[in-house]
Protein: 3-hydroxybutyryl-CoA dehydrogenase
Organism: Janibacter alkaliphilus
Amino acid sequence: MERIGVVGGGLMGAGIAEVCARAGSAVVVVESEQTRADDSRARLEKSLRRAQERGKLDDAEAVLQRITVTTELEDLADRQLVVEAIVEDESAKVDLFKRLDQIVTDQDAILASNTSSIPIMKLATVTSRPSHVLGIHFFNPVPVLKLVELVPSLMTADETTERSREYVEGSLGKNAITCQDRAGFVVNALLIPFVLSAIRMYESGFATAEDIDQGLVLGAAHPQGPLALADLIGLDTTMSVAQSLYEEFKEPLYAPPPLLARMVDAGLLGRKVGRGFYTYDR
Ligand SMILES: CC(=O)CC(=O)SCCNC(=O)CCNC(=O)[C@H](O)C(C)(C)COP(=O)(O)OP(=O)(O)OC[C@H]1O[C@@H](n2cnc3c(N)ncnc32)[C@H](O)[C@@H]1OP(=O)(O)O
Ligand SMILES: NC(=O)C1=CN([C@@H]2O[C@H](COP(=O)(O)OP(=O)(O)OC[C@H]3O[C@@H](n4cnc5c(N)ncnc54)[C@H](OP(=O)(O)O)[C@@H]3O)[C@@H](O)[C@H]2O)C=CC1
């Protein structure tokens, strides 16, 4: 596909825009306001320059030329695929899908969500084209992790899923798995309760954050421990995903621990703000 749109240019949106532009697509990224758009552009430039410096990319400038960052949703009118990557909040996503349905003119265009946990049907049914809505769920960091979950709802046309698979596997070089439309899909339904258990263990004074993480890195060969991973995902996103999972399944293991809620209230959101379970240079 030649013309891609991404809504939300944060941690995930910028990564999705990067991989699509590196695959040769022209990408329009829509952010909520100009300062966020500037941040998103800066994030993209930094990541692409780093890829060039490490010899993974020949010409960062050429890739950047294919990316436009704007604050106007109307700039998505001619897109063939739009991937929504705004905050993990159901009502915000519902409002956005209503607007995208009115703005994107090509009735064959695919409207996708990168949601971590919100059932796709909730977004599909507010559009006039539920057959063209599905979840295309990337993993963080997007340029590094190979997986994409494809999540058709009960109303998604097979052709929509197949066209999405062709793009993410054929053009982006990712590996796709297909999941039923249940909160958390496959990976987060397994990963988030693990992260929440680590937070509960830390909260109870069982072990230090460093020892919990080192245990999983050295004892189970994880690339990073669960508390560092929560900081990478963002504690606000971790909290929202836990809430969606708990709402769907009512299993205590999905309930957000009080410490996570307090840290989110305090704005200790992890890597993206410089402090979560650990502190970071920004
Ligand atoms: C919440 C959801 O809905 C779903 C999710 O995404 S859940 C989160 C899933 N993500 C994970 O589980 C991440 C697990 N962690 C990891 O894979 C690794 O710790 C990590 C890739 C984040 C960092 O790896 P590391 O070895 O500690 O650091 P580092 O040496 O800096 O990076 C390793 C490679 O990744 C690249 N990299 C790291 N972060 C990157 C980023 N943000 N963008 C692009 N490339 C990046 C580096 O350039 C480096 O590449 P080379 O080896 O080719 O030079
Ligand atoms: N973090 C992760 O590891 C992963 C996250 N996801 C999912 O991806 C989505 C985005 O997460 P992430 O990138 O981490 O979040 P971020 O907070 O980093 O980025 C979200 C961006 O979207 C902007 N935004 C919010 N509302 C709108 C809107 N209506 N129109 C345009 N832009 C908007 C935000 O701006 P502002 O701050 O001004 O609101 C912010 O810049 C979520 O659904 C999340 O669950 C999926 C896989 C992994």
In short: The beta strands are 3-7, 26-30, 67-70, 81-84, 110-113, 133-138, 147-152, 175-178. Residues 188-272 form a domain with the N-(1-d-carboxylethyl)-l-norvaline Dehydrogenase; domain 2 fold (CATH 1.10.1040.10). Residues 7-13, 30-33, 36, 85-88, 92, 96, 114-116, 138-140, 233-234, 237, 272 surround NDP (ligand 2) (CB under 6 Å). The radius of gyration is 19 Å.
